[in-house]
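Batch queue: ligand-bound targets. Current item pairs a single chain with zinc ion. No template structures supplied; prediction is de novo from sequence plus SMILES. Inputs echoed for audit trail.
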Amino acid sequence: MRLIDTHTHIYGEEFDLDRGEVFERAHEAGVEAFIFPAIDSQTNQAQFALTRQRHDCYSLIGLHPTSVNDNPHWREELAEVERLLANCNGGGCDAPVGSAERPVERFYGVGEVGLDLYWSSDFRAEQEECFRRQVELAIDYNLPLVVHTRSAWAEMLAILEEYKGKARGILHAFGESADTYERIAQLGGFLVGIGGVSTYKKSPLLESIPQIPLSAMVVETDSPYLSPVPFRGKRNEPKNLVYICEQIALLKGCSPEEVAEVTTNNARQLFGLN
Ligand SMILES: [Zn+2]
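Prediction returned. Tokens below.
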């Protein structure tokens, strides 16, 4: 199997002690590329450094919705996202790769961005403003979005419907019903990111995955979070993509190899990987 982990945070400190082994296990399992979603200024440096070290790692840039909550500096952080995108993807920046002006060669998408009203809804207006601006950046730079949504699917979809036909990307950590998937399909241009939640006993995905075509899916671990069964509750890592492919295959009545092949092609095409 050849796999792409379309959403992993292995640049995080949870992997500082054994990151090399985590990459080795991933390669043994067939994972050949790793997409790193950004969180905020606290995690960007580690993310960019790992991206520069390895040719199989690809960075996104964005400000996570929960990083807007209680953050008096979120507008400055958003301005930094814009500046980095202009420098790395806009052309005309002569700064060497690795400098503060140009930390990576280029970004492969805008993410993770979105709405998260799970912890608090006090910052809904700020999160919406931040999300809209980043949707517009993705459109301007012709980049895919990676959208994080928690306790806010209706609100998030209402915003993306305003940009129908223009925005494209992945709705990451999809765990919703077939009805919600239908609304996503109507948007056009958006895939759903399927992860460990698909292996949980009470997940709505057990009923919705059979209704979702493989051509609309990518696979992701969201490591270190959301480990699939039989590792639920433990630190997640990219090699566990295999368990997610097996679960999708079981639910759709096809082979894990077919799931891997189609979803890997979907990811390559969306992010423009060779
Ligand atoms: Zn994430």
